[in-house]
Amino acid sequence: MTKLKHPPSIIDKLGRPLRDLRISVTDRCNFRCTYCMPREIFGSEYVFLPHKEILSFEEITLIAKSFVANGVQKIRLTGGEPLLRRDLDRLVAQLATIPNIDLSLTTNGSLLAKRAQSLKDAGLQRVTVSLDALDEPTFKRMNDADYPVSRVLEGIEAADAVGLGPIKVNAVIQRGVNEHAILELVQHFRGSPHIVRFIEFMDVGSTNGWNLEQVVPSQEVINRISDQFPLESLQPLYQGEVAQRWRYKDGSGEVGVISSVTQAFCSTCSRLRLSTDGHLFTCLFAQQGHDMRTLLRDPLNISEEALSNWIQQKWSQREDRYSEIRTTDTARQKKIEMSYIGG
To answer: How many CB atoms are closer than 10 A to CB 40?
Structure first.
């Protein structure tokens, strides 16, 4: 079937087109990863969003359609842990009716084995799975929820079996925490169609205790891998791709690195993030968002035209480039937590 042409994208103040929308469907997670939802902050007393404040599937679908009409080509469902959202396959089915979009999901993989088939049947195309280590002690220490590695690996296998690929496996690498996992992950997935991507530890939010000394530069990661398994660089698949791509010279697969700290890619950033309660964020490192839910729930003023005009206004005014101008002072500024707006 011939694909439809994408509508023209809106351009922001720095000439960047709107292409990607990441939708957080829940602020809850069953992990307490130290770099995202540390237990000392997100413990048993933490108050999550009440149901009435969370966007419905119908509201999310209406928003998604408006973004696609303004140039969005890729939609990714995130969280928190998106598979904790009840009946998520129903939302996937609604979004899958939007023509000519790339529809994917990021998950910690703990519930994926049970949900992979229903998500695929609903129209999900791909999944990205977070996996920061393969050895049990490190993995459990980082997820701080006593989930075993085997649960995530089973989820990856199930997603592969039903065709939710190519699967990307994301690992956040922290100095002194899980550097040893780099080669272990490479050796495990090398020779498979899965793509491991190593992410620099970022100063997202204000609760993860970020320290520049804990950042393992992507170039160091590539050097470590290439010393054992020689690599050669690949060209980006599309403008604005966040991961730098590398392939093994012996043809046994591909790896990637995401270098938000040491090699900022703000100049080509084409992403917006929609929070669980309907706030729009123009940068992963934002201090505040734009309230879309109030507009959406105003029966007197909401219309497709009003929604589209609102989106065009917010993107055309965008000039974020946090990672390019990051300093010690800006890194300490209070920012929205990643679990609220998705990664």
So the answer is: 10
The DSSP annotation for 269-288 comes to: --EEEE-TTSEEESSTT-S-
Distance CA(261)–CA(112), nearest Å, equals 30
Sign for the CA dihedral angle at 61, 63, 67, 70 comes to: positive
The answer to whether the CB of 125 falls within 8 A of the CB of 100 is no
**139, amino acid identity:** F
* Helical pair 149-162 and 112-122, crossing angle rounded to 10 deg: 20
274 in Cβ contact with 280 (< 8 Å):
yes
DSSP string for 55-104: PPHHHHHHHHHHHHHTT--EEEEESS-GGGSTTHHHHHHHHTTSTT-EEE
**pLDDT tens-digit profile of 298-333?**
877 778 888 999 999 999 999 988 787 776 656 567
* Cis amide linkage into residue 251, ω under 30° from 0: no
For 220-314, strand residue ranges (E) read: 231-233, 244-248, 254-258, 271-274, 279-281, 290-291
25 CA to centre of own chain: 12
Q: Which residue matches tokens 């005014």?
A: 317
Region 11-17: what's the mean pLDDT? 95
Task: Give me the helix-helix angle, 57-69 and 88-95, nearest 10°.
Answer: 30
The domains found in the chain, sorted by start residue, are: 20-341 (3.20.20.70)
Phi-psi region of 251 (alpha: psi -120 to 50; beta: other; left: phi over 0): left
Q: Encode pLDDT of 43-99 as tens digits.
A: 989 999 999 999 999 999 999 999 999 999 999 999 999 999 999 999 999 999 999
Q: CA-CA distance, 89 to 69, in Å (whole number)?
A: 23
Please give the Cα distance from 2 to 101 (Å, whole number). Answer: 13
Largest CA distance in the chain: 63
Q: What is the pLDDT of residue 300?
A: 74
In this prediction, residue 343 has a pLDDT band, given cuts at 50, 70 and 90, of low
